[in-house]
Design goal:
By secondary structure, the protein is an alpha+beta fold. The protein has nine helices and 15 strands. The protein has a single domain, classed as Deoxyribonuclease I, Chain A (4-Layer Sandwich), CATH 3.60.10. A hairpin with a 2-residue loop joins strand 6 and strand 7.
């Protein structure tokens, strides 16, 4: 990462932010052995231009991980390009198209990854709701407000598919529950199919699920998706928090996996609290006089949620060969 010849104010802000990152206790990844995976809802990223300082801070946060699902990435990718200039040439993005109605909110889903650790395998697709034939047309009886997006990747000798989405918001709890149930059913059906690209699936996103015991989250996990053990109790460093939103009281942002993938997840995971306090906001933006609301449009109103994944499965493969030979 190269922040370049920044102003003294930005340099001081980066040093303060690095202390917040250090407090999150994100371990370094090891090439061909582990990767750090994250999901981050960067608030309406691209709707309005970020300040120069915010671009540097967002890049610094993203650079802690190897693969990040970006939700609330907007149709305008200019600010993303500014971030990439800081991250460097080894970083790449695979992203979906946007929907321009109010339900779609001009949002994309993107997978940002460091090619030194993660390779894009070629699959990139939006998820469509199942259709039934009505007269001469094939129509969906239910829709995703923002289509989930999935891509295939490889890290070490581990191939996997990542699916990410930003679930609908608003007052209709029943509508959101039905949408997440639809996603759970789609995953169950597609990844049991003979032509599935890969059955090692990681599901990430902002699901707008306030708690882990409400009916919305239960709809999402009804077909077997699990929370990695490292994220059951969400932590910032050693401190348990109740959520990944700015108030730390809602479990909107999740990383989930199929039951067969449990052993791939290490005991390292949590969230990265970059907000601190009003005084800390002033440290990051000393001349701007930002309110807390203003701050969320510079960084975000969500924190990244991250987990470390073990990508070295060579021993497992060799053991399977030995077992197959014995039978």
């Amino acid at each position: 990462m190269h922040h370049g010849d920044v102003s003294p104010d930005i340099a001081a802000g980066l040093l303060a932010l690095k202390e917040r990152i250090k407090a999150a206790q994100i371990p370094p990844s090891q090439l061909d052995q582990t990767i750090n995976v994250a999901v981050w809802n960067i608030r309406e990223f691209g709707k309005r231009p970020r300040s120069e300082a915010a671009i540097h801070y967002i890049a610094e946060i993203l650079g802690q991980f190897d693969l990040i699902a970006l939700v609330e990435l907007r149709d305008n990718l200019h600010d993303y390009g500014r971030v990439c200039q800081i991250l460097g040439r080894t970083w790449d993005l695979v992203y979906s198209d946007w929907m321009d109605d109010s339900g779609g909110n001009h949002e994309r889903v993107g997978f940002l990854f460091d090619r030194r650790a993660v390779t894009f395998n070629g699959l990139a697709a939006e998820v469509d709701a199942p259709r039934t034939k009505k007269a001469r047309e094939y129509l969906a009886g239910q829709s995703f407000w923002r289509s989930p997006y999935m891509c295939s990747f490889r890290a070490g000798n581990f191939d996997f598919v990542v699916l990410a989405t930003h679930a609908r918001w608003g007052d209709s709890i029943d509508g959101r529950t039905a949408e997440l149930a639809l996603l759970a059913d789609w995953i169950d059906r597609r990844f049991k199919g003979k032509m599935a690209e890969d059955t090692d699936l990681i599901v990430m996103g902002d699901f707008n699920t306030p708690t882990l015991d409400d009916k919305i989250f239960k709809a999402l996990t009804k077909r077997g998706l699990k929370i990695p053990k490292a994220l059951v109790d969400l932590k910032v460093g050693d401190a348990i928090v109740k959520g990944s939103n700015l108030n730390k009281d809602a479990r909107y942002d999740q990383i989930l996996h199929m039951p067969t993938l449990a052993e791939r997840f290490t005991d390292k995971g949590g969230t990265l609290d970059f907000s601190g306090s009003a005084a800390f906001i002033k440290t990051l933006f000393p001349k701007a006089n930002y309110s807390t609301l203003d701050f969320t449009f510079q960084l975000s109103d969500h924190f990244p949620v991250w987990v470390q994944i073990d990508t070295d499965i060579e021993g497992q493969r060799l053991s399977q060969i030995v077992q197959d030979g014995q039978t």
